[in-house]
């Protein structure tokens, strides 16, 4: 982490990514790198609408390896320490809920056709995502920074991909890993998670589980209303949750482009 103040000095400190922004501010004050009065009204790039004090630092790295905080007095750059991604790194995480979510999603697809390439808009409070349904994967894009990419036919580079394979499609290494979380399915229900910026945390797993359930919710809501579900040049199927209230329907692309 680098901190630059108005005197153009740069200091570097380390902090655990599971600490909060409140912990970060406390550390900077404790090390006398910044007085308390300079730490008010910090803006977190990409998270301007969220309450920031208890936001975990790991949340800032879901789609990037750098995060930026600033106000009129100070600029802070957070950099995640790089780690080599591997399936072994994922073995200590609890995948039980994501396995259930994938099963529910596959059952929803059995009941109602969703055209490959369909893009969903999902919002949970201030968190907004675009999810793209492909034959063997769900691709996840950040709404604020990857909007155009979600609609490309190629070179999309989602920050997160949930690859869904049948038992016969798994490599030996993948099959060995899948057996640690579930009995391998003959259907495309075996989830393999790929992130542009590993490592994967339990917080990521919980977020992915929630997003897959929302996709299944949308599919179930539209079942029986038409022959199949798809996004078009003018609208996207959507799930929006604000507080305890949730709504499912279509949203105009022009409306989404207006709030970006």
Automatic annotation (TrEMBL):
Output the superkingdom of the source species: Bacteria
What is the recorded name of this protein?
Answer: Uncharacterized protein
Record organism: Salinicoccus roseus
Organism taxonomic ancestry: Bacteria, Bacillati, Bacillota, Bacilli, Bacillales
């Amino acid at each position: 982490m680098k901190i630059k103040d108005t005197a153009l000095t740069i200091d570097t400190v380390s902090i655990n990514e599971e600490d909060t922004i409140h912990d970060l501010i406390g550390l900077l004050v404790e090390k006398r790198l910044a007085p308390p009065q300079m730490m008010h009204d910090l803006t977190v790039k990409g998270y301007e609408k969220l309450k920031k004090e208890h936001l975990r630092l790991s949340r800032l790295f879901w789609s990037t390896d750098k995060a930026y905080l600033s106000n009129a007095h100070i600029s802070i750059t957070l950099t995640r320490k790089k780690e080599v991604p591997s399936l072994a790194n994922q073995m200590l995480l609890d995948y039980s809920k994501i396995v259930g979510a994938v099963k529910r999603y596959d059952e929803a697809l059995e009941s109602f056709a969703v055209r490959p390439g369909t893009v969903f808009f999902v919002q949970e409070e201030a968190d907004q995502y675009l999810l793209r349904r492909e034959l063997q994967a769900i691709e996840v894009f950040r709404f604020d920074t990857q909007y155009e990419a979600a609609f490309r036919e190629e070179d999309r580079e989602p920050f997160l991909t949930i690859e869904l394979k049948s038992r016969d499609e798994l490599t030996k290494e993948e099959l060995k890993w899948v057996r640690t979380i579930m009995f391998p399915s003959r259907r495309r229900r075996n989830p393999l998670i790929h992130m542009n910026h590993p490592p994967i945390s339990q917080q990521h797993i919980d977020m992915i589980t929630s997003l897959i359930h929302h996709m299944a919710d949308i599919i179930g809501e539209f079942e029986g209303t038409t022959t199949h579900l798809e996004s078009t040049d003018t609208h996207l199927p959507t799930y929006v949750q604000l507080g305890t209230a949730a709504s499912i329907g279509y949203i105009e692309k022009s409306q989404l482009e207006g709030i970006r």
